[in-house]
Design a protein that fits this description.
Low-confidence stretches: 183-187, 518-523
Number of strands: 30
Radius of gyration: 25 Å
Mean pLDDT: 82
Number of helices: 9
Strand order of the largest sheet: 1-2-3-4
Helix content: 10-25%
């Protein structure tokens, strides 16, 4: 009777822990895991790792649920590999009812919480529910976590511990370093090497984004911080004032993705898939025209912004985050900013564009502007499900769930080596399974499922692309042969790539890469990837 009463009390305590789990701090969660280990020691003899994992099955179901909810994708994968009894997975589903193990249950719970449709049958080619859901969960997390961002004179990092680090120079009062400093009118203040931002100590950062004007950082708790210039309300605080150190945007919570655009614009996507944008409300273009005397003059043209909603004609900015109501019935999973236009992908796999692009960036042929989101018909006709987008100044890319890449727009960065007004499959990557893409300015890159990096773009950018000569269609970066690339960021005259071990490689004009060294070797062969010493960033390893 005493034993039964003790077990009943343990089950009651486990249920209380389950209800309180969402409010647990990291320290409390660690204490809970330690208590669990003590319980296992009381009920079971010491065991090898596989036996210890199996011991989890002896715990009350309520307590096991709490433990699994605290594990990341890689830990779940290790547990599934160590203890098959926790999976009860099979290559083909047995006749109903099929037994579903705790790992699969947790992965399904995460997908359901994000509003993602798992389906009742495995996709073609998949043989295991656990493996399929692990890959899907990793891809979802990978799309929302960026361990570094590259601006013109600044670089931002998220190290393995989730600390925010910056290096670079404050030029013209940009204040992108995030460090409180007295600005010197005669000398640009510098931060080198990559240095933790003091005001962000104690906060775990998972993603960063930046342009030449301002920066955003996303914490593990879904909080968004901004700093830099506040022109056109780009910082999201309701004014145009600058912020020298990161300041939380109070109107945003439970955010899963952040993005900074090139034209004083920003975006965020919350856990419900709602898209919020803010910043500059009018886009200005300069067109070169010829008068009746044959003289060439520059004409200033204004177009609709890339914010995705209508504002008063006299309004120049949206200083606080505002939801894009036209996409309120959809769940946004990926966003990209071009020069005056925006792309958004929904969980259903549809790609929308809005804003203004005189070079075909919208993907609608010769249509140059639209205020509200409009689905790109050429991509819809492919019958493919798209999962991610990327954009540069005049071009755009879209990635399918099967790893196929489509490109369009002007310049040499759309993957075709020629202008395309509507999306076309990138022929140079046929046969490659692309898992994520990145683009900025006049360059693009793609990483395959095997971790190989391909890059291409404007002929003047081949140094930062990792190639000895110009490359206008995708080409593998030979200097990273043997490195499993897990993350990439592009900006200015340089590019960064992180391996699965968190080691960072940089290439481009490293003589201007403030804080990362200026050796003769770096200056003479800028296209060769160079490892940044003593720095490891936060990346998602392969399950």
């Amino acid at each position: 009777m005493v034993g039964e009463a003790a077990l009943a009390a343990l089950r009651a305590a486990a249920r209380e822990c389950q209800l309180a789990a969402p409010s647990f701090s990291d320290e409390q969660a660690s204490q809970g895991l330690a208590i669990t280990a003590e319980l296992c020691a009381h009920f079971l003899p010491p065991a090898a790792s596989a036996q210890a994992a199996s011991a989890l099955l002896q715990l009350p179901a309520e307590l096991l649920t709490v433990i699994l909810s605290r594990l990341d994708t890689c830990d779940l994968a290790c547990l599934a590999n160590t203890c098959p009894s926790l999976c009860r997975d099979a290559p083909t589903p047995p006749p109903p009812p099929r037994q579903i193990g705790p790992v699969e249950t947790e992965l399904r719970r995460r997908a359901e919480a994000r509003g993602l449709d798992v389906g009742s049958s495995l996709p073609e080619g998949a043989t295991s529910w656990v493996v399929y859901l692990l890959k899907r969960d990793r891809r979802y997390a990978q799309m929302r976590q960026a361990p570094f961002a590259v601006a013109h004179q600044h670089i931002i990092f998220v190290d393995k511990g989730g600390r925010l680090l910056t290096c670079g120079r404050d030029v013209d009062g940009t204040r992108l370093s995030g460090h409180a400093m007295d600005l010197d009118a005669n000398h640009a203040n510098q931060v080198r090497p990559p240095t933790p931002v003091p005001s962000m100590q104690g906060r775990r950062i998972v993603s960063v984004s930046s342009n030449i004007y301002h920066c955003l950082a996303l914490s593990a708790e879904g909080e968004v911080y901004s700093w830099g210039r506040g022109s056109y309300g780009a910082l999201g605080h309701g004014d145009e004032g600058a912020r020298e150190v990161p300041s939380r945007i109070e109107s945003l919570s439970c955010i899963e993705r952040i993005l900074v655009g090139p034209n004083h614009s920003s975006a965020a996507v919350d856990e419900k898939g709602r898209l919020f944008t803010w910043g500059r409300a009018i886009v200005t273009f300069f067109d070169h025209e010829e008068d009746e005397d044959g003289e060439i003059f520059e004409e200033e043209i204004e177009g609709p912004s890339s914010l995705g909603y209508e504002l008063d004609a006299a309004t120049e900015s949206q200083p606080t985050p505002k939801q894009v109501e036209a996409l309120s019935k959809d769940r946004v999973v990926s966003v990209a900013f071009g020069n005056g236009f925006t792309l958004a992908v929904t969980d259903a796999g549809a790609v929308f564009s809005f804003g203004c692009s005189r070079e075909g960036g919208l993907g609608h042929g010769w249509l140059e502007s639209m205020v509200l989101p409009w689905r790109i018909e050429a991509l819809a006709q492919t019958k493919r499900r798209f999962v991610a987008v990327a954009a540069g100044f005049y071009h755009a890319l879209a990635l399918t769930a099967e790893g196929e890449l489509y490109g369009w727009g002007a310049g040499n960065a759309n993957g075709h080596g020629r202008e395309e007004r509507t999306p076309q499959r990138v022929a140079a990557l046929l046969g490659q399974c692309v898992k994520f893409v990145n683009a900025q300015f006049h360059s693009s890159c793609a990483v395959t499922e095997e971790g190989e990096l391909f890059s291409w773009g404007d002929s003047s950018s081949h140094d930062k692309l990792g190639h000895e000569r110009p490359q206008v269609t995708p080409k593998r970066v030979a200097g990273l042969s043997g490195v499993e690339v897990a993350a990439v960021a592009m900006g200015g005259t340089r590019m960064l790539a992180a391996g699965a071990d968190g080691v960072v490689w940089a290439f481009g004009r490293l003589v201007t890469l403030v804080g990362l060294g200026t050796s003769a070797t770096m200056a003479s062969v800028p296209w060769k990837p160079t490892q940044i010493p003593t720095l490891r960033v936060r990346v998602l390893n392969s399950p």
